[in-house]
Write a sequence for this structure.
């Protein structure tokens, strides 16, 4: 923090002032947390018996089942949204006007509607007895639209010359999309795509509202069906379930960060092909085949600014 | 059509509910988000850690879980009997504050270091640097992401409907419980939300155009 836009490197006076702020700030935050904990403890929410319920095999089994249910819905939604995203982006970039128009309308409509009302409408209207499929379908539709926009941004960030060169080689439209544009787009957008998957994972908790027995619904059931010392163990259950959610999301985010770093490393790590071989005849071996994929790194991998705008949910 | 005409008062209340919970929680999110962003860029380490912890926790918690916390834990800490509207706006506002914080922080970080250094070197005070040099530039980069954050906030406000706040999703639920066909209900609710989100994006586009400068 020696160089920040807002603050100069502190002199002796500022160092003292900052120290005072640090002490006061720490005390204030600690006081806030302590008061909250004391208030909860006073009402008996943090009593050992409240946490003891997680030693029962029944409740442990419930949580394990719920975790599995959440992951199942997430897996389905992840696959569904990625497949739909690819279809929609191909449709949106199509040369045929009706297809382009239909894909654009679909994306714009479902992207600007609350996910919850989509899920609820699918559940009530079509899949009343299959809440998992309703949840997965709703998630796929909404996140598919977002993924399509992410992919479109990725495809647009591939330099024009790439597709022009591919067309010049005589590749068909499908070939250009599949073997030139898509790989580079996916690669440069991978952090954002995974970021959106984190959002998808978080949104599986909407299954709570359509009574799908995922983590949150189970938490609610556990808390409202168990009574300890005449109280419902909401606080302890929420702490346990919240920790599980945060851990899952952080793991997935960590994967995104790791991939982003790896992408950045590859960008600088790829050696520029040494000067053309002395023999003037370009042999097939001299054509840097794999570099085509590597060139994806040359696109704006550090798309943090553009990417985060899309991920917001 | 009948769904809407027969239940217009409820629909109107739901629409007003969506608009007001969006407005109230936007204000909470904006105030809290700017405050936390201030913490995150401050030269005081404990405040920075607090800001980072806040953002990490809020961003990785599902909003529905946050709603559960606010409806079942927070009344125990503060006092019981808070209205569901207040609790819902607090949950939404807290959740969104982390996104606002990140937008503001990245906005401040896009201002080149040389700008502030130049300002300091001609003898501007901290307040002057902030007011005349840093904030005007930061605001311009913050506005587009803020627009999408507030649109997301509007969409997220639907979850409040599931926690018995009167708003549009609540109306959808009510109508489907009454046995109306879900498709027209869905279309009307969708239109209601689209009106709110388009208004927000329009307002922000206006704001953006007014603040635009030639570079």
């Amino acid at each position: 923090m020696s160089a920040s836009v807002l603050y100069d490197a502190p002199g002796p006076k500022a160092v003292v002032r900052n120290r005072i702020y640090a002490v006061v700030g720490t005390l204030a935050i600690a006081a806030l947390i302590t008061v909250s904990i004391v208030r909860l403890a006073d009402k008996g929410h943090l009593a050992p018996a409240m946490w003891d319920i997680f030693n029962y095999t029944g409740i442990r089994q419930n949580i394990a089942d719920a975790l599995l249910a959440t992951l199942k819905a997430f897996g389905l939604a992840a696959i569904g949204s990625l497949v739909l995203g690819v279809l929609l982006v191909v449709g949106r970039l199509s040369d045929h006007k009706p297809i382009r128009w239909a894909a654009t309308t679909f994306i714009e409509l479902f992207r600007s509607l609350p996910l919850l009302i989509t899920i609820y409408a699918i559940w009530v209207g079509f899949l009343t007895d299959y809440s998992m499929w309703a949840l997965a379908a709703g998630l796929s539709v909404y996140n598919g639209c977002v993924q399509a926009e992410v992919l479109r941004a990725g495809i647009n960030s591939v330099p024009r010359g790439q597709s022009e060169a591919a067309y010049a080689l005589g590749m068909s439209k499908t070939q250009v999309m599949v073997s030139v544009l898509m790989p580079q787009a996916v690669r440069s957008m991978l952090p954002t795509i995974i970021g959106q998957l984190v959002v998808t994972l978080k949104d599986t908790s909407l299954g709570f509202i359509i009574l799908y027995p995922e983590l949150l619904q189970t938490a609610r059931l556990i808390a409202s069906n168990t009574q300890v010392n005449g109280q419902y163990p909401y606080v302890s259950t929420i702490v346990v379930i919240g920790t599980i959610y945060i851990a899952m999301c952080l793991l997935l985010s960590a994967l995104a960060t790791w991939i982003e770093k790896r992408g950045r490393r590859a960008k600088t790590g790829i050696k520029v092909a040494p000067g053309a071989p002395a023999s003037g005849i370009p042999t097939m071996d001299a054509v840097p085949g794999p570099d085509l994929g590597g060139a994806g790194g040359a696109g704006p991998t550090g798309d943090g600014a553009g990417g985060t705008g899309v991920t917001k949910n | 059509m009948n769904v809407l005409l027969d239940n217009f008062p409820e629909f109107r209340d739901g629409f007003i509910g969506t608009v007001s919970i969006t407005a109230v929680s936007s204000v909470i999110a904006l105030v809290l988000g700017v405050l936390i962003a201030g913490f995150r860029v401050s030269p005081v380490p404990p405040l920075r850690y607090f800001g980072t912890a806040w953002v990490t926790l809020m961003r990785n918690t599902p909003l529905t879980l946050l709603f559960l916390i606010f409806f079942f834990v927070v009344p125990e800490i503060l006092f019981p009997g808070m209205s569901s509207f207040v609790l819902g706006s607090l949950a939404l506002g807290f959740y969104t504050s982390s996104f606002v914080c990140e937008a503001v922080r990245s906005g401040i970080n896009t201002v080149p270091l040389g700008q502030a250094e130049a300002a300091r070197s001609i003898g501007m005070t901290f307040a002057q640097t902030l007011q005349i040099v840093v904030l005007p530039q930061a605001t311009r980069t913050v506005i587009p992401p803020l627009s999408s954050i507030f649109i997301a906030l509007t969409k997220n406000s639907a979850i409040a409907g599931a926690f018995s706040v009167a708003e549009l999703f609540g109306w959808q639920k009510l109508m489907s419980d009454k046995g109306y066909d879900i498709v027209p209900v869905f279309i009307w609710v969708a239109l209601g939300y689209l009106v709110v989100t388009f208004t927000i994006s329009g307002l922000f586009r206006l704001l953006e155009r007014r603040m635009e400068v030639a570079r």
